[in-house]
Amino acid sequence: MFKRFSDSDNPSPNGSDPPAGAHPVIEALELTKVYTMGDMQVHALRGVDLTIGFGEMVAVMGPSGSGKSTLMNIIGCLDVPTTGLYRLDGADVGILDDNSLAEIRSLKIGFVFQSFNLLPRTTAQANVELPLLYAGISGRDRHQRAAQALHLVGLDDRRDHKPNELSGGQQQRVAIARALINQPKLILADEPTGNLDTKTSDEIMDLLQRLNREQGITIVFVTHDPEIAEYCSRVIHFRDGRIERDERASPEIDSAPSSQVLESLPFDRP
Amino acid sequence: MNLFESTRVAMLALAANKLRSALTMLGIIIGVSAVIALMSIGRGVEKFFVDQFTSLGTNLLYVFPGQLSEGPPSERGRERGVLTLADSHAINNPLRVPDVIAVAPQVSGNALIARAGNDMDVSVSGVTASYQDALSGEAAIGSFITDADVEERSRVVVIGSDVFGRLFEPYEDPIDQTIRVNNILFRVIGVMEERGAGVGGANLDEMIFIPLTTVQDRLFRLRTVSGEYQVSLIYASVISEDRMEAAQQQITDLLRERHNIAFRGEDDFVVINQSDLLAIFGDILSAMTLFLSAIAFISLVVGGIGIMNIMLVSVTERTREIGLRKAVGAKRRNVLSQFLIEAVTLALIGGLLGIVLGAGGAVAATSFVDNFSAVVGLDAIAIAILFSMAVGLFFGIYPAYRASRLNPIDALRYE
């Protein structure tokens, strides 16, 4: 659908864009995250190993305080781990500063939030264009690509509507179009159906599943909702900062078991 | 993201909150419009004086009694120095003051004049026949005061063109009509041509001219202890502009001698030319400008604090928006520039509105005053624009910096 735009500033070590499957989208090894709150130290992650391949649709589940949000922040390049290694699309992003993380987010990650987080008083079209603005794409390209993304989520006729003129489901579709616009390696969805009724939730999940199957986009959900997990090929259960259980519903989608991939990687950092 | 995109985003954000944006600008609008209005009027005053003085000819010297630095003109020279009609005659001596070609003594005062139910407050100039030569004014109708009128202390009057307009119907012949000056009857012998100018702010067209001796004896009774006629001002017309300094020196030497001033004593009179007078007004104007600048500075600071306040509120209010922008790839400098541009835009639009308001107000206010109009200078506009931008930049930096440092995780969770 999209023409892939230049990855010349891709921080991947070999400098070129590898074909899907050559390495996983997410490789995490021994991730820990410690927050210091006053005198207390909170261990949000206590050593997480995780590999997610291209084209996977994964649900990360767990109770509040299990560390799944912290994991999502790190996977989403919004935060960096205290220790451990995190590679996104082959590039080590655990060591980058704020601005470089922003660039990675702009190029490789799309976010979908529970509360949509659309800019108020701004048209759907402009909301979808937002990530391209920061990626330095010219006005005409932005316009064209946003129109395509809105087409993909079935909102051709709502381009000029503002968020308050759209239903919840439509707003979330706009948010999904916004997440898609940069052709990300990964879409991170944080409770994407949390604010929607059952019927709309099903529609949104159907849409995301379709995008995953037809466009091959890797999607990671962070959720409490078991119904979301039903759509996913893999469910990771989180508890006390660790992975408790890693369930694969349909193994045929997986490219390689995570342990194999990890062993084959030439780590130069512990 | 380039400057154009940043500006567009900032403008959209401002447009989304129009009332608040407008209220925020108010401080800057008031500050800038006050500055522009006062500067324009000040410039107008300056131009008014320059026009008035230069229209009298550039080779005119003024001799005042006393010293200019000693208090307001009304008190000046009462005790310290006195000029007399005899001084004026002495300056008129070509042997002592060769570079002066005409001398006109004058005594000034105010009087109420009346005719047929119309009355008017005017400046009275007690003059001699030579006034016409020194100030090169002519009577449009009738004739000017003659030496004989001065000699005889005649009750005759020459009126300015505006005075004619007030007291007479346009078709009336004023010659030999009588008017009352402070209740004394005078016969009109002439009407001056229109000058549109004056001395020290007094409009020549609104003056009446009476023989100096008549004024002294019948209206103001100003005499020295020894009984000499006192004058308030002596005009001396110099032969050419390059002889101004020489003439000034000649008059000074003569008057020091006549007034018995010792070698190191201070003059009890002042001989100045128009550029000296303009320089004095310039000093007054620059003091005024300094004062206005202080007021302007205060109002701009107040306006700037208003902008800073609103920007801080705006940053807090839009925490989630900032978090989202960062999540989708905005770098610190993108966020910084967006909020900075918003602040500068607020200040700049406020400044532009202030310029329009101030200039319009000044021009409208002065349009009711004859011979005087505000002058809106390009430099004032440029200064106003630069200053309002600087205010926006200065007071916008801190809120923008705060916004740019927000952690996207916390910002996205902010309720």
Strand order across the largest sheet of chain B = 3-4-11-6-8-7
The amount of beta strand of chain A, in percent, is 15-25%
Count of runs of 4 or more consecutive helical residues of chain B:
13
How far apart are the first and last residues' alpha carbons of chain B, in Å? 28 Å
| Helix amount of chain A | 25-40%
List SSEs of chain B in N-to-C order: HHEEHEEHEHEHEEEEEHEEHEHHHHH
Mean pLDDT of chain A: 83
Give the overall shape of chain A, derived from the CA principal axes. Answer: globular
Order of helices and strands of chain A: EEEHEEHEHHHEHEHEEH
Largest sheet of chain B: 6 strands, mixed, barrel
Structural notes for this entry:
- The complex is a heterodimer of chains A (270) and B (415).
- Chain A is of the alpha/beta class and 270 residues long.
- The N terminus and C terminus of chain A are likely disordered.
- In chain A, helix 3 packs across helix 4.
- Chain B has 415 residues and is α+β, with helices and mostly antiparallel strands.
- In chain B, the strands form three sheets. A six-stranded mixed barrel of chain B has the order 3-4-11-6-8-7.
- In chain B, strand 9 and strand 10 form a beta hairpin.
- In chain B, helix 2 crosses helix 11 and helix 9 runs parallel beside helix 12.
- The longest helix of chain B is centred in the last third of the chain and has 44 residues.
- Chain B is elongated and about 100 Å long.
- About 1% of the residues of chain B have low confidence.
- At the A-B interface, helix 2 and helix 3 of A face helix 1, helix 10, helix 11 and helix 13 of B.
Features:
heterodimer; A: 270 residues; alpha/beta; 6-stranded mixed beta sheet; 4-stranded antiparallel beta sheet; globular; disordered N terminus; disordered C terminus; B: 415 residues; alpha+beta; 6-stranded mixed β-barrel; two-stranded antiparallel sheet; 13 helices; 19% strand
